[in-house]
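Each lists chain and fold; for instance:
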Amino acid sequence: MRYDLLSILLVDDNHHMRALLTAILRAIGVRNIFDAGDGAEALQILRNHPVDLIMTDLQMQPLDGLDFVRLLRNSPDSPCPMIPVIMITGHSTLRRVGEARDVGVTEFLSKPVTARGVLQRIGLVVEHPRQFVRTEDYFGPDRRRKRDPVAAMAKRRAGER
């Protein structure tokens, strides 16, 4: 993967976490790194700079990661509603992961952050992008992780007729 071609936006209200992520990204060759202290600042950066990927914290003030992704995916004036988002948090309970998934987060990374974890998540979103879906109450990457063999069989049978 050509990491030097990626533009990544880091969104975290903790300066030290942004510095750690920046160091990891620079070590793998990412040159274009933008950072923001909260979701509102991130939206402004996205309006002014082309970005390929967002890495955001879940808990921030005044606009937290969930609200930021919700606005990013659903706001009529969103600069890039289909951009991949990696949510980073120390609160990786099943409920929080479900909330993040339900607002349109692409991947989830638990703290403590490691270089291997960052590389793995970036690889997933860049090399294996997920199709976006729109329903009455959801817009974002397809939340299904596993192929449904029953649905695949029904689809195949429908094609046989």
